[in-house]
Specification:
The complex is a heterodimer of chains A (about 300) and B (about 375). Chain A is of the alpha/beta class and about 300 residues long. In chain A, about 35% of the residues lie in helices and about 30% in strands. Chain A is elongated and about 75 Å long. Chain B is elongated. The chains are: A alpha/beta (about 300), B alpha/beta (about 375).
Chain lengths: ~300, ~375
Amino acid sequence: MIIEIQNLVKRYGDFVALNHFNLSVKQGTILGLLGPNGSGKSTAIHCMLSLLTYDRGTVKLFDEDMNPTKYDIKRRIGIVPQEIAVFAELSVVENIDYYCGLYVKDKKQRKQYVEEVIQLVGLEKFKKFHPHQLSGGLKRRLNIACGISHKPELIFLDEPTVAVDPQSRNKILSSIKELNQQGATIVYTTHYMEEVEILCDRVVIIDQGQVIAEGTKEELKNMIRTGEKLLLEIPSLSQQQKIALAAIPGVLDVDYDQVTLTLNVANTKDTLLPILTYLENEQVPYANLHTQEATLNDVFLEITGKELRD
Amino acid sequence: MFWHLFYYRLKILITNLPLIFWTMVFPILLGLLFMAAFSNLDQANLLNQSAIGIVSEEDTSEFETMLSSLQTDEGELFTVSHLSKQEATTQLTNDKIIGYYEFDKADIQLFINQNHIEQTVLSEFLSQYLQIQDKVTVLLNAGVNPEEIYSQLVANEDFITEAKERSFSQSNFYFFALLGMTILNGFIWGLGNTNDQQANQSANGIRICLSPRNKFVVSFANLLASFVLFYLQSLVVLGVFHFIYRVDFGSNWGWIFLLIAIGSLNALSFGTLMGNFSSKISFDQKITIGTTLTMAMSFLAGMMGTESIKYWISQNLPLLGKINLVNLISEGFYQLYYYQSLQPFYHNLLWLAGFTIVFFLSNVYFERRVSYDHL
């Protein structure tokens, strides 16, 4: 295991930020650490890295107990903090060189690493720019480049795509995948469900400092009763009709928002025909019929009873 | 590694234009205002040749000889006329003379009708003359060789001669205080260092703390880079004051450079300590607190026309003067400029160096932490 955490407890006075937090991460994994704001994601990362003291528990990285003076372990780690951590006074290439230089002494090798990471995050045209001259998305890319330029084996990315344009987001996500393909293990915290679905091999859902669910995407989706979603566009639907639809065998839940009728069904194959028959009998016109599989958002909603971005 | 950190810290600081403006350009502009505001101040304090009277029936040649040692650029400070009591009173009333000495047996009395700087000199001269006279009488009565007494008097004369080379300058005094404030403003540089290297204060700090580098190496590289730049910057301000604004700093340049070096180190360590002290106060709030402290110290050091407060503190609350960092620095310039003996300056420098060591050791104590309770 690259990361092995057991019974980690972190308190701030009476507030328990991490409550017997356990986590194991295998080499080469992209682990998604999911949770709403204040759930303990960043605290967990900071405790793992020995930046924060903790009250109980053990943290092992690369099969060794982690502590702040374990420089050999630190050398193998990269971090991309949530806040953009670059110097406004330095250019793009200087910022990356500065941080890379904290790990790589050899100038020639450092120069090569800096060039490679600039290409990886797509900042070739902005090498001489200063951070204030970059858009939000480009700044985020620079933030990532500074954290990974020394080719770490374990990378912590703490919400790296907050407030980023779609083009930069795609670039960032593809860069992360590439890093993983090169052998890096990645811990990725976010509250963007779609990113986790695209990127992560395993997902850990954390709420109020505790791991509340863990597994692959498929395993998590299988945990909840929601199977698939059936969506139709309908101009109007009475309350009685809504109740009648909910009574059809196999229909788990019905929701209507004045345009879209959403039906959570156990199995589309068995329930689709009775639903459509009912609508035709009731002379309710419908259009744009399509199905949707359960998402991690549904998983989160089901487990915690709240939206991820609450 | 150390030089990598040092090089980039230099680059970060040298391209931080707001920092350079507030800690270098602003004091230079303030000095320009001082020039405009205080240029006539020294003129007002210049001593003019004045007429005085002596009312005596005895021989006063010894007294007059000593009086003639008081000189201005134009010659003797006082021109003496021998007058009767009535003439002296009339001339004093009509402002023909600024005062007169009346000799009555062993006693000498001074009569003046105004209280300007010339009259103060007359009074001070009389006081010193009487002291010397008493001293000589006591020594002669004790059987001390008159030649030995004379040699002591000559030594005293040398002192007067040397002191004459520099006249008191009010504007110099303000510039010394301004330079003291400028140097202490280096706390902002130290504060910036802490902000960038501590994980509980910035995201950059998180990255640096997670790097496989000893924190003390990072801190020391940052401190050295800021010291080199800030010291050079302070010398630029000194150069502008001296060569452009014509502020006379005396001739003890070696000690002046050392005072600025220790003052700079003191300010940087002070700022670093402020940064380390609490992570709950934001960087901007710390700058506000530090600036307020510096302004208060400058006020008490006499920079804002408050030299009487500085004087009162030195007489009644000397410890307050010794814990005022701006005062310690500006007083150092003052002592190097006016005092013949460097003893008070050494004493002052020791206080400043002592504070620097205390700040430095406190910073080591705070920065030895490698994990934090909060981020």
